[in-house]
Amino acid sequence: MHIPDGYLGPQTYMALDAAIIPIWGVAAAKVKKTLRSKQVPLMALGAAFSFVIMMFNVPVVGGSTGHAVGATLIAILLGPWAAVISVSIALITQALLFGDGGITAIGANCFNMGVVMPFVGYYLYRLIAGDTASTGRKVVASGIASYVAIVAAAILAGVEFGIQPLIAHTASGAPLYAPYPLKVAVTAMASEHALFFGWVEAFATMGVVAALAKQDSALLEMKPASKSMRWVWAAFAALVLLTPIGALAEGTAWGEWGTDQFQSELHMAVPAGLEKLSGLWSAAIPDYAPSFIQNPLAGYLVAAIIGSAVVIAATWGIAKLLARKRDDADTTHPSAA
Amino acid sequence: MIPALAHVGKNPERRPQRRRSLARRTADVVGRAIADLLQNEDHARASGLLQSLDPRVRLATVLVMAVTVSFLHTLPTLALTIIATMVLASASRVSVASFARRVWTTAGFFAVLLSAPAATGWISPGYELLGHGALSITAPGVLVASRLILRVVAGAGIGMLVVWTMRWSDLLGALTALRVPDVIVATLAMTQQQIVSLMRTVENIHLARESRMLATGSTAENRQWVVGRMAFVASKSLKTADEIYDAMLARGFSGHWPTLRRMRMSGRDVLWLAGLVAGCALVLGADRLIAK
């Protein structure tokens, strides 16, 4: 996910470089307040850890390996603001010491992996794990949080790539930087992280959290970020309210075609298997448009509210179920703890 | 030979018939990264053109060049920038062959892979040079892909100039002189030292496993072992931070980071900067003329 120089145009990288500076300022002030002068060695070690964790090859399936970013893990261990500084310094060091990641893209890389990942990961972990003392729930929460966080950062990187042909092109319309349209860039980034790198991140984070819970559970004590979770919910509600913007986009996401669109997009006959299975399941709210609402934007918003509620309830339920199973196993085999 | 030391030396014994274990592969990657760090420091100590400039001017040089490249739109000016990075590398006593190999095998290779679909009619429809339909190679596609590859290679070359001609201590000095908060500079300074220390720990952990292993183990076993070592490194990092902080307090640390380095720009540095800005403005002007 390290964006090199050349893929993002000046409009994008300059905006992200400008955006990251005040975020670093706020992060430095927050960290100073919570960690005081101890901050420097702690953040330096956090940055060094963030750097070396990317060097561990984590086996996934069939002999393939990948490496984790570790931003959610660092946010859980140090708090999200300290993670912003630590991961950003690790990324700057990679760019300047090893040439990994572009110089002009430092702002974009730090925003995607150093801000979005720690914050999404940390608050999702906090939401699922709560104040529990249960190791199982913490492990499951860390896995879900790190998976969602890396996919979110990948989607954001995909958006950054995908808007390039729209905002930077020649008079004839030829793209000057990353050439792929939004639907291709976002689909490619989201799918490779959802199918592969997300699992590497989740395996690594869950494993480290489980091992730390056994070795030194004090390290997993929740680090302060803000006094309450209210603003996280407020931000979440704001995102839900902004979902009607999605209805303004034209067409269907690449690869998500129905049988009718398949033929028009790919100019090939619909495969028999696809045609046969296409009618197998009818969605409760097809195309994010509830049948009882006429206005498409209002329908999109209601669909977002229903979908979010279902996802939160399901995540909560699965986390509780898995945590209970793990705690039962710990009670049955106390030697394992 | 002791298995743990098999990778050390110029001609290590290799067993090409057998696939390297996960532990050996990771140890090799970490070992190479440490060797790269030491080699970069050697390049940065050489008495070349860029090394002789004030560190602030060196930093400004790469930033101005990187921003200029991002504004170029035509192939000749992008190619000219690539040549300029190679000339600068050569004048800075960096082997042009190693420089080009490093740039092309990392950024260049991935840029070629990533831009390949953009050369087809699927992404860039237009006059078909080869084949027919969505998979044909088109003229606008070749232009788009070439522009992306040249831009990425030029950017990577500029990045490598920083890596190979700038000592870490010079970079920190330049950042301090440019009024970057001392907390950030101090954290960067400590990070570099801790990275080397942690990398050695990670390498030793993997070599120790390699030396004790009789079989490669299953994916699940290897994964469990890897995440266990990650937890060890995380725990060690946080405990080391406490120890370092105690040691800093014992040596009179009060929260401030004084720097002993005083930088002075010479007339040569000013001349270089003026020439650089003029050169970049010329290239940008030529780029716009060619684009018209």
Please characterize this protein's 3D structure:
The complex is a heterodimer of chains A (337) and B (292). Chain A has 12 helices and 2 strands, in the order ααββαααααααααα. With 337 residues, chain A is an all-alpha fold. Chain A folds into 2 domains: 216 residues, Arp2/3 complex 21 kDa subunit ARPC3 (Orthogonal Bundle), CATH 1.10.1760; 106 residues, no CATH class. A two-stranded antiparallel sheet of chain A has the order 1-2. In chain A, helix 3 crosses helix 6 and helix 6 packs antiparallel against helix 12. The mean pLDDT of chain A is 79. In chain B, a hairpin with a 6-residue loop joins strand 1 and strand 2. A two-stranded antiparallel ribbon of chain B has the order 1-2. Chain B has a domain of 146 residues. The interface between A and B is large, with 74 and 90 residues.
SSE class of chain B = mainly alpha
* SS field, number of helical segments of chain B: 9
Main β-sheet, spatial strand arrangement of chain A: 1-2
Indicate the mean pLDDT of chain B: 83
End-to-end CA span of chain B: 66 Å
CATH class of the largest domain in chain A: Mainly Alpha
Helix and strand composition category of chain A: mainly alpha
Residue ranges of chain A: pLDDT <50 for 5 or more in a row?
none
| Main sheet: strand order of chain B | 1-2
Describe the global form of chain A: globular
The count of strands of chain A amounts to: 2
Low-confidence stretches of chain B: 1-15
In a nutshell, what does this entry contain?
Helix content of chain A is 66%, strand content 1%.
List the helices and strands and how they pair.
The complex is a heterodimer of chains A (337) and B (292).
Chain A: H1 10-35, H2 39-53, E1 58-59, E2 65-66, H3 71-78, H4 80-98, H5 106-129, H6 135-162, H7 164-167, H8 182-215, H9 230-242, H10 259-266, H11 272-277, H12 296-332
Antiparallel strand pairs in A: 1-2
Chain B: H1 22-45, H2 55-71, H3 75-91, H4 96-115, E1 128-130, E2 137-138, H5 139-165, H6 168-177, H7 182-212, H8 219-250, H9 267-291
Antiparallel strand pairs in B: 1-2
Helix pairs in contact in B: 1-7, 2-5, 2-9, 3-5, 4-5, 6-7
